[in-house]
Request: fold
Amino acid sequence: MKGLIFSIKRYSIHDGPGIRVTVFMKGCPLNCSWCHNPEGISPFPETVLQTNRIGDREFSSNVEAGKYYTVDDILEILDKERVFINQSKGGVTFSGGEPMLQAEFLREALMACKGKGYHTAVDTSGYSSIDNYSSIIPFTDLFLFDIKHLDEARHIESTGVSNISILDNYRQLLASGKDIMVRIPVIPGFNDDPEYLERLKHFLITTKTSSLKKINLLPYHKIGSSKYKRFNIPYRMGDVETPSGEKMQLMKELFLETGVKVKIGG
Ligand code: SF4
Reply:
């Protein structure tokens, strides 16, 4: 069996503990307007026309987005980094796109990585069936779980899908006993007003179990916009600005009231 992957990042330090290899799996059922990996959304291999600028000259070239890998290919990459992974108590993280879209391959890969003693993490939007989550729970040490918005209508507006199954899956994973880090993308004008943040804090407190280890506040940034330009994809965020450091700090203080560790960034 093969999995469609659009990038593999070595020495990753923002996708779970220690130094990790992050495997970006292609395909996502969501279409968030702030997505930093637009080339990861289509579930098919693509050739993307990339435009690079040097001074006032532009150069265009075709870039392959999406290549098939076997589980053994992934293990081979991990084995080359084993020393760094072991010394830093790191591991492997499957991200995307949405890795659950290739649930069967993901399960095989996680099982093989666990079999070789690697710490495993899955970075997910939460949008998949509970059966798919149940199938990977035994081989997953940590879930990085996105909560984008609690309101269904707002969620649909900015991501294209309902959040009902996402919030159900979140509760189920909290009951699984596996470690969970909640990731909240902080998007100005979407999920950063004080009233909403109070409501989100309340939700995190009332659903909390010992599985919830950390809350990561991920400030919106414009780094992704250059990728849209390079790949000639329209950027929908307009001139939305990165939230200030002061605002992020206030948010951190608010979420510390959940009794859970809070970090600004991944
Ligand atoms: S869930 Fe993540 S990968 Fe999918 S569209 Fe949203 S930001 Fe992009």
The two ends are 31 Å apart (CA to CA).
